[in-house]
Amino acid sequence: MFCLPKTAWPPTSLVLLDLDLSDGILGRSYVAPYRASAVPAVIAELRDLEEALRGKPIAPFDAFEGAMKALNVVGVSGMSTIATSAMDMAIWDGLAKAAGLPLGVFLGGTPGPVRAYNSNGLWRHEINTLGAEARDLQREGGFTAMKLRLGNVHLKDDFAAIQAVRDSVGLEVDLMVDFNQALGFGDAIRRCHELDDVGLYWFEEPIAYDNVHGYAELARKVRTPLQMGENYYGARDLLTFLRAGAVHYAMADLMRIGGVTGWLRASNVAAAAGVQFSNHLYPEIAAHLLRVTPTAHWLEWVDWACPILADPLTPKDGTVSASSAPGAGIAWDETSVRKYLVSV
Q1: Distance (Å, rounded) from C-alpha 175 to C-alpha 292?
Q2: Selection from 197, 111, 201 nearest residue 159 by Cα
Q3: HEC string of 249-262?
Q4: Residue burial 190-215, b: 16+ Cβ < 10 Å; e: rest
Q5: pLDDT in tens, 275-305
Q6: Cβ of 223: how many Cβ atoms within 10 Å?
Q7: Beta bridge partners of 27
Q8: Mutual angle of helices 235-243 and 259-273, in 10-degree steps
Q9: Max alpha carbon distance in the chain (Å)?
Q10: What is the rounded average pLDDT of the residues 157-185?
Q11: Angle at 37 between CA 32 and CA 39, to 5 degrees
């Protein structure tokens, strides 16, 4: 199922998966492949996985390895991992439902809040709107941390954006900044040096995500910690950056890291290295997983899927608590799904 819910971000493409495990249990998940043009490829690979897994025991680790082998002829990154992640999250959701436990408890953790930062705004746009936007983000759930996007053409505009937010919400709010790979390597060194003294929590993805050497060099030249990982396809990508000394913090996107199974593997790699580990998007599932992550750091709060969820999460006092319902707590608002449904 493919839908385009309306959010503050431009229309977001979501692929919704209902996986019939057995005995009437439906495992549910969603992925957001950003571009609507990518959706048919994701759906095609999901159908391939369905054929490969049909009739086999429901064992997520076996299913994950089977999916990787089934799709290796087309490559195990990109669309293959995205489809595998969707299937994996649905399997774990269904197994936790069958056990009558929230996913985090099923995985051996306890219920509870996870500290979160609001990532629902502060994009690179007119600076004169950032102050009011920051106040709205702060009030939305009592947040004491938020993310600002930088990487404007001129350094002065990055400074102005930071100042606008600081003037609005004060110095007590932790301010993460994300460059979304906007800078070249040389410019990144200069820009990050200039911004090193303004009290930012982290610099996220200043340069191309796959420039391991560049990140290693940058990590040695700046004082503000580097954060990246939303584009890691599996635990090996994380390990490559850790070995190179290229990151100070790490994060994972459930769609790319390999779903719940991929998260568990990657988070243990981060833990072995002593690196704090956060999520990128998918807060409904990440709120469970961060409760079983040894070096759990921050939850990135976004409401992108909220319009099509029957019981969306609600941030409170700068934290997010996972659903207490069996499974991951993902249930569709069928009326909204029908409203936004797009045929492919």
Answers
A1: 25
A2: 197
A3: EEEEEHHHHCHHHH
A4: ebbeebeeeebbbbbbbbebebbebb
A5: 999 999 999 999 999 999 999 999 999 999 9
A6: 8
A7: 19
A8: 20
A9: 60
A10: 98
A11: 45
